[in-house]
Amino acid sequence: MYKNFTKKKEKNIMETIFCFFLLGNSLFLFLSFFSFIFHWKNDQSQINQLFDKDIVAENLIGKIGATLSHYFIHCGIGISSFFFPIFFFLIGLKILFRGILILNIYKFITYQFLFFSIWIPITFYLIFPNYGILSGVFGFEVGNFLISLFGKVGLGMIVLTIFLLYSVIILRHIKNTKKLKKEKEKNGKDNKGIFLKLFHNFKKKFFNYEKYEKKEYAIDHHPFFLNLKEKKRKIDIPILSSSLSIHEEKKEEKYLEKDNKKKILQILNYYQIGIDKIKCTIGPNITLYEIFPKVGVRISKIKNLENEIALNLSSLSIRIIAPIPGKGSIGIEVPNHPTTTVYMKNILYSEESFKKSTNMELPIALGKTVFNETFIVDLTKMPHLLIAGSTGQGKSVGLNSMIVFLLGKKNPEDIKFILIDPKKVELSIYKKISKSYFAMLPNSKEPIITNIYEVKNILNSLCKEMDKRYDLLEKSMVRNIKEYNIKYEKKYHFPYIILIIDEFADLSFSFQQKKIEIYITRLAQLSRAVGIHLIISTQRPSVDVITGLIKSNFTARIAFRVSSKIDSRTILDCTGAEQLIGKGDLLFSNKNELIRLQCPFIDLSDLQKIISFYGKNNLKKNEYFFLPYPDE
Length: 632
Hints:
Blueprint: H1 2-43, H2 62-77, H3 83-96, H4 102-127, H5 132-186, H6 194-206, H7 253-270, E1 275-282, E2 286-293, H8 299-303, H9 306-312, E3 319-321, E4 330-335, H10 344-348, H11 351-357, E5 363-368, E6 374-378, E7 385-388, H12 395-409, E8 415-420, H13 434-437, E9 439-440, H14 452-476, H15 481-487, E10 496-501, H16 504-508, H17 513-526, E11 532-538, H18 548-553, E12 556-559, H19 565-572, E13 585-590, E14 593-598, H20 604-616, E15 625-626
Parallel strand pairs: 7-11, 7-12, 8-10, 9-15, 10-11
Antiparallel strand pairs: 1-2, 2-4, 3-4, 5-6, 12-13, 13-14
């Protein structure tokens, strides 16, 4: 790979040298020819004495310029020789700017050069036979021959006819090119900002050789979160297929927005509810209509019209936020038709997500808000996360997007995962990175816990690791893992440990349910300060699975679509999750704040590319992080 970079660099240097050689030659010939027109009579006698120092030529480029001009103009094609410096200059420009804008002109002038280099000498000999400098030897010989065949009048008619025919061909060509340009403009393919492209290519060609510098595929240079100062450099990254443009355009929403506004006003006016104005915000999957009611209107009156508004809008379900926190308005969330998929690639590559996650310890991208803003939270501040929702509503995809975002942001020595997957297939794809990113039991054979009987041991071992860290924090006289890592950065380093359980309901029905619940409750209560965080997912959000003891320690919760209001209250302590539209539509609750988001989608093939990238190209020490031995 680096050999290819070196070859490309050498090729670029050779092209640069050749380019400036042509540009220099074009200027040299032009000055020689221009000076020859005025001084050819004085310099012609001195051409044979080229190496005599006492004789000085009047040509601007000296004897060499006079000699070249003599052979090109006098012995060649006359005044048409000026096409040579123009031709060399255009070739130099074509190499310099890589053919942008110059390509069509370059071809056009090449054909002009071929035609006029023959036509001009013959025509000038016919009109000005006594001025040999205009026609050259070529025009003199060919003109004499043609005059002997056709005579002066006949040759004049032939020359004029050829010129007219050539002019007709050129005019047709110009018309066709104009038509093509108009068609391109209609199709949106017009070359706008062409001078910016020229400057970019010039800069890229001659002032950006550092892009071929050798660069290791270390995890410090993540493919998705390159330092803004290093964005000029290119490295090979996994090309994700499931992607749309970051700035996605909405086509039909504008028409639906106006129509829905009228319908909402119509139904509210029917029930004699005064409205000052309606403001609309189009999100990925829903459109938020903010209603500003007149003074004296009761909020409950609008909230009770939920079914009537849904019927009037022909919507499956709507959600009314009365009032919107921090605003003097009432929100009506209406599903979009069709919905827009939020792709993980657009979040990973966006500068917005990079800026938001820079100062976070464990950033997690949960998706996009109704305002099309990327929503990123810090897991260390939550400090644990509970995810619940019905089957097929996006829980596993959400977990994958969280893990991928953490992989892209943190080094292997900074973060370790413990994955518990009772279904055995949901998280098995992460085995490739287990050596770098996983925390394991010393005697464990499988990096991902799939056996329910081993769950108690891993949780017990994690509790012992927590107690061990607290002892070290006490001795070091620091309060949390962040302060400890700053104080003992060179000697010791504690990685963050994230425990992810994909299906908690399966563990709650095992014979060791009580012990598992005790361990999880203890970890949820104490582990935040020592850098151990829990992400628990379940598709059965019932009271016997998510007990009050667990809920009280998981203040941050995510609810995907559920089947009933009871399940929604179990997760969020309020209704609303039963009104979601599915396919990644979620409600995020943290510290009494409820936010509706669209979870990013990541395809299985893209996930495999990312995992393979971090599995193969990680050049750091690949060592397992072993937890303490569990109690028997």
